[in-house]
Amino acid sequence: MCATSATRDAANADEFRAMVLDTLGVLPEVVTGDEEARLSFTGAVRGLSAQAPYLVVDIGGGSTEFVVGSSSVDSAISVDIGCVRMTERHLHTDPPSSDEVAAATADITAAVDRALDAVGGRGAATLVGLAGSVATVAAIALGLTEYDPVRIHHSRVSYDEVAKITADLLEMTTAQRLAIPVMHPGRADVIGAGALVLRVIMERAGAGSVIASEHDILDGIAWSTASPS
User: Fold this and answer.
1) pLDDT tens by residue, 178-210
2) Confidence (pLDDT) at 227
3) What band does 228 get if pLDDT is binned at 50, 70 and 90?
4) Which domain of life is it from (predicted)?
């Protein structure tokens, strides 16, 4: 049982750990931000046929992990700009106002610049995006009528497509986003922020496209369990 950003931050994390122990008989392993980044990278790059080095970004709810490496991790950092956190911090109206989007963009940009400087992300040859926000943007770009992980996995989405989809999502109400065929009901209220994080990463890293990967931290956890060394 592994837990990530939300359990690191939650004020009632002790209650969650107690519930897990009572339910499963074991305490959850709460991974650090660096461990979360490394696990995401391991899951993402296995089987990937693209030019290295890679910049792997895992856009979660509470945080986004930035990892640079080729066959293994060279550097990694986790920053608090997840899609849920950015929505709760900045995007309060439905749809968000231009001032709210501007404030979110400024907050995200500062964090992304700090992360890219820390890991040397601007020198990466290939940007790989993980998790639900990236998968949803890729599904919309592909014009899918239903979620199809096979088509999404290793699809490449251009910066122009990401920018347009982000603008469209931020102009929609939650109800309008729910009408998008590939939209998961639990993601409709936060996908605008998630897409915005992806767009800013691409801008600041100078990436003309992003490869969406359906293999992520869950795969990395599985590999680490199979090969604990």
Assistant:
1) 999 999 999 999 999 999 999 999 999 999 999
2) 64
3) low
4) Bacteria
Domain with 204 in it: 32-226
Q: Give the pLDDT of residue 69.
A: 93
Pick the closest to residue 130 from 220, 10, 30, 69 (CA basis).
Answer: 220
54 to 93, 119, 130, 136: CA distances (angstroms)? 36, 11, 13, 21
Whether 39 and 222 have beta carbons less than 8 Å apart is answered as no
Same domain as 57, residue 24: no
End-to-end, the C-alpha distance of the chain in Å comes to 18
Structure tokens at 52: 């290295």
Tokens at 177, concatenated: 């986003």
Other CB atoms within a 10 A radius of the CB of residue 70 amount to 13
User: Residue 69 pairs with which residues in a beta bridge?
Assistant: 54, 73
User: What mean pLDDT is reported for the chain?
Assistant: 91
Q: DSSP assignment, residue 179?
A: T
Shared domain for 19 and 38, answered yes or no, is: no
Q: Are residues 108 and 12 in the same domain?
A: no
Q: And the tokens for 210?
A: 């992003």
> pLDDT tens across 91-141, in order?
999 999 999 999 999 999 999 999 999 999 998 999 999 989 999 999 999
Domain count along the chain: 2
Q: How many angstroms separate the CA atoms of 11 and 13, rounded?
A: 6
Are 136 and 63 part of one and the same domain?
yes
Q: Which residue in 41, 61, 34 sits closest to 128, CA to CA?
A: 41
